[in-house]
Every structure is written in C-alpha cells, then in structure tokens.
Design a protein that fits this description.
Elements: H1 32-48, E1 52-59, E2 62-70, E3 85-89, H2 93-105, H3 115-119, H4 128-131, H5 135-139, H6 150-156, H7 166-177, H8 194-208, H9 212-221, E4 230-231, E5 245-248, E6 254-257, E7 275-278, H10 279-290, H11 302-309, E8 313-315, E9 329-331, E10 336-338, E11 347-352, E12 358-364, E13 369-375, H12 379-397
Antiparallel strand pairs: 1-2, 1-13, 3-7, 4-7, 5-6, 8-9, 9-10, 10-11, 11-12, 12-13
InterPro entries: AmpC-like, Beta-lactam-related, Beta-lactam/transpept-like
Protein name: Serine hydrolase
GO molecular function, one term: hydrolase activity
Length: 399
C-alpha cells in the first residue's frame, strides 16, 4: 500500500549539524588560502551544528579554492569528499531558464510565448489568464501564479505518481490546475512560484519533444563537464555515497533522509529544483555564469545570458523568508540581484533548499568571481552559516 506523505513530513520545495578534514583534490592548485578553507569550514560546521559543508571559489574561470568537510550523516563517522554530491534545490531554476534561453535562440520559443500557445493542444480549457502567461513571466515569478499553497502541494503529491512518466505527470498536474485564474498582486508582481517553473519546463519539453531531465544532462551537465551532476536525491539508492539531507522534525529531532521519494521534492516538479552535484561541478556552472558568456562552452550567447541575469521585476521585502527563497532585491530569470552590506555592488545570487539541504551562490560578473556553498542540512542555522561563508570568501578574493 502506498503511504502518502503528510503536510508535516513531506519535503517542501525551496522556491527553500568535530569533524574530519577532507583534503583538497589535487585537480586544483593548493594555495595557502585553499588549505585554510578546510580549517575555516570546519569551524563554521561546528559553530552551526552542520553535518557537512562545502564551498568553492571561481576566479576568471578557474577554481582557486574548494573544500568539503564533515560527515555524510549527522552523528556518524562517514567523511565527505571533495567529489561528494550536494543538493542545490531551487538553484536549479537558473539552469531551467538557460535551457529556455537556448530554445529562444533556436527560434523554438520566444520570451513572450504564451502558455496556451505552446501547451493549449495538450491542456484544453485552461483559464484565459493562465493561457496568457508568458515564458518570461513564468521564469521571473511575475505571471500571477501563486507560491506553493496546500492546493498546489496536494497536486505535487498526487497518488498517481507511480502510474505515469514525469512528462505525463506534469501534463496531468497542469490539467488538474488549469481552471484557476491567476492575478498579479498589487505592488510588486513577484510571487515565488515553483509551479510557474514546472510549466516553463513543460513548454521546453513540448517544443523539443524531449523530457526536461534529458535536456539538462545533454545541454547543461555534459557541455560543462559536470560529471557528478544528477537529478533527484543525491545518494545512490541503497548506498550512503553522498551527504544525505536531514529533516528537522517538529520536536527538534533530526532524521537523515537517505534515499527514495521522501529524500527530495516530488520529481514531477524537477524543473523548479532537484539537481545535485559536487561543489567542484557546481563551481563550474557558477564560473561559466560569471564570465558573461565570454568563455566556452557556448550554451547561449552573451546577449541571452545578460537577458537571463538582468532584473525583470522587483521583489517585495519579506521578513524571515524561508531558506531557499529570496528576501528582497531584483529578480531576473532564475537569478536574483541583491545588495549585501558586505559588497560594494549588487550581486547575482540565489538560494536553494528542498527542506533537507541548502545551497547558496553569489556571482560578481564585474570581477569574474563566483562563490558557491552547500550543506546537507536545512533551516535558519544552515542559511546563516552559508551566508557567513559567502561573506568571508567574497572579502578574501575581492580585488
């Protein structure tokens, strides 16, 4: 009998503790700063009670420092390695947006392509407001589709999850929600919408005839040589070969989520955030974005990359937003632009969390500098820890 996840234990999308040192991979130059990163991250890990934490810095397209410290399971002695896979949650959104940019360049989509125009033959009878939402609005969270609510969450956790391929499940999800009218709120149109990214992923699938999951591997992971990158829970089924996520229970206890459906968001919403990879491979993605499209491989043109990264909507100020969602600033297509009090210019950034892991990224294209931080623990402490690492490394590597 299939047991359906309950609202208290199901993984919520992120739209969201002394340990063994792990030596730097010999693939990267080992500077004094790189060696110090192991020591620094160990201190952060202990201070904030994290099982594991990893970070990397990319300057001018080269990984200049990277380290991973801690254990794959809280309370156990299973040291992480530099090649271990961490979940990046909603930071996958920038990859989905980049896939859309590729298809715009190829003439298969337009930024103003409408949901009804692309998906209307497969999803008949959708509301006029939903049918009129554009690809760019979906990717900038400004379409009027709301943030996840109980109605939407119930569709993510549908009982027919074991009966269909993911492409068909996404169509069934949209068919079940299609009658809803959408509306832009007063003030900022920004509403952080995982469902919007699912629909954008469906538009990508429709015009290519290829599942989003295949496109991610073929057009993002493979060209960037992200050999550890994958989708879904980061540990191989039946093996603790990656730092697994952890769920904080209502009573404050912690449960390691090893593998299987409960170890990640429902895979039907993969375009909104289910990628995992090593900190080194995540750094490759970050460094490519920091280069303004001037370095290979050519995924999209510099002009399209600029369009993806440029602010399309201002986000309202949010008090104590869930880790994995932006607090304020501007939002482009899968990228936020935020002013930090420790940087002298706004930076490209995003947070990602599937409620069991956390990842953060900042990019300073003007300095061709990118920093990524990942941990296999969720919540406010993990978010604060990752923020401290970003600030420290930005100060260390800024000219």
């Amino acid at each position: 009998m299939t047991q359906r996840a309950t609202p208290t234990n199901r993984p919520m999308p992120g739209c969201l503790v002394a340990g063994l040192l792990v030596a730097m991979s010999l693939l990267f130059p080992v500077s004094a700063q790189a060696v110090d990163l192991d020591i620094y991250l160990t201190g952060i890990r202990i201070k904030y009670g994290l099982p594991a934490i990893a970070a990397a810095v990319v300057k001018n397209g080269e990984i200049v420092s990277a380290a991973a410290v801690g254990t794959r399971i809280l309370g156990e002695d299973i040291p992480v390695t530099i090649d271990d896979r961490f979940h990046i949650g909603s930071n996958t959104k920038a990859m989905t947006a980049t896939l859309a940019g590729m298809l715009v360049e190829e003439g298969k989509l337009r930024w103003d392509s409408r949901v009804g125009e692309i998906l209307g033959d497969d999803v008949k009878g959708m509301s006029a407001s939903l049918a009129n939402a554009t690809l760019e609005q979906l990717l900038s969270h400004s379409s009027g589709i709301p943030s996840d609510n109980e109605t939407i969450l119930d569709l993510y956790f549908s009982a027919d999850v074991f009966d269909h391929n993911l492409t068909d499940l996404r169509l069934r999800l949209l068919n079940a929600w299609k009658n809803n009218e959408i509306s832009v709120p007063d003030g900022s149109p920004f509403q952080y919408s995982n469902l919007g990214y699912v629909i954008a992923g469906m538009m990508i699938e429709e015009v290519t005839g290829t599942p989003w999951e295949q496109l991610m591997r073929q057009r993002i992971f493979t060209p960037l040589e992200m050999r550890t990158a994958g989708l879904g829970p980061q540990a191989t089924y039946g093996r603790v070969d990656a730092p697994v996520g952890h769920r904080i229970e209502p009573d404050g206890s912690v449960t390691p989520m090893l593998w299987g459906p409960a170890a990640d968001v429902p895979q039907v919403i993969a375009p909104a955030g289910n990628a995992h990879m090593s900190i080194s491979d995540y750094a490759k993605w970050a460094g490519w974005n920091a280069g303004k499209g001037g370095r290979g491989p050519v995924l999209v043109s510099p002009e399209t990359l600029h369009h993806l990264q440029s602010v399309k909507v201002q986000t309202p100020v949010r008090d104590n937003p869930p880790p994995g969602t932006p607090a304020t600033g501007g939002y482009g297509l899968g990228w936020g632009t935020v002013s930090f009090d420790w940087a002298d210019r706004p930076l490209l950034t995003h947070n990602g969390s599937n409620s069991m892991n956390l990842a953060r990224i900042v990019i300073d294209p003007e300095q061709d500098l990118a920093i990524v931080v990942t941990t296999n623990f969720p919540g406010a402490a993990a978010n604060t820890a990752a923020g401290a690492v970003l600030q420290h490394l930005y100060a260390t590597y800024t000219r």
